[in-house]
Amino acid sequence: FRPLSQEESRREIAFPNEIFLITYAGRLDERKGLDILLKAMQLADNPVIQAVIVGGPPSNKPFLSRADLSREPYQKYITMVDEYGLEKQVTFTGGKPQDQLAPYYCAGDVTVVPSQYEPFSIPALEALACGSCVIASRSSGLKSTVKENHVGTLFEPGSAEQLAEKIKIFYDQPELKKELRENARPYVEENFSWMSVAQEVSRVYQELIAQTGSIQDPA
């Protein structure tokens, strides 16, 4: 996962440059909050805002057909898409292997992680490593993974209204989006690379040793 050209990434996944693209990558179960993202897009009420949904059973198709979407786990979400009038704004790709995800993160203007509960969130880190800013729910591990106003922003879990407002902020303020995107990769390298994680683990052990004076075998 590394930054790639946004223009080339959009060309690779067949999205035009003139739209504002949201990337969602993850499972399609209720806990992940895709329904919140769809409702937020309805509330944002802007046809320029589109979303690419990467998740579900593995597929080698670039986009899923209407017949594909009539089956689980997509049926619930495509019903919402129809109800909200988002047919021209939401695209489902099916599940993609790890080595194919980077262009989706790089193509997006933002990555949205709307989970109701999330202990850590690998997709958020993958997106940041690709240079994407992240809009995430203020839930569990995401509060520490996504540094607010530095690499992204947070909203209350389950609040489609707040998510819609955050999306509109990034749409209306391209310079803010650009600044946060530039911060994303260095932030991941500093805080979540194997080297930084090893250094943090070492620091914890050094603090424990300092507190106890020495580590002795029990008698």
Outline the structure in words:
The chain is α/β, with parallel strands linked by helices and 219 residues long. The protein is built from ten helices and six strands, in the order H-E-H-E-H-H-E-H-E-H-E-H-E-H-H-H. The chain has helices at residues 6-13, 34-44, 66-69, 75-84, 102-107, 122-129, 142-145, 160-172, 174-192, 194-212, and strands at 20-25, 49-58, 90-95, 110-113, 133-137, 152-155. The chain has a six-stranded parallel sheet, sandwiched between helices. Helix 6 links the parallel strand 4 and strand 5 (133-137). Helix 6 crosses helix 9 (174-192). The longest helix has 19 residues, at 174-192. The radius of gyration is 19 Å and the shape is globular. The model has no long low-confidence stretch (mean pLDDT 90).
Overall 3D geometry?
A: globular
Strand order of the largest sheet: 3-2-1-4-5-6
Total count of strands: 6
Spans with pLDDT under 50 lasting ≥5 residues?
none
Give the % helix. 40-55%
Q: What is the arithmetic mean of pLDDT?
A: 90
Q: What radius of gyration results from the CA coordinates?
A: 19 Å
H/E topology pattern: HEHEHHEHEHEHEHHH
Residue fraction in strands: 15-25%
Q: Biggest β-sheet, characterized?
A: 6 strands, parallel
End-to-end CA span: 49 Å
Return the structural class: alpha/beta
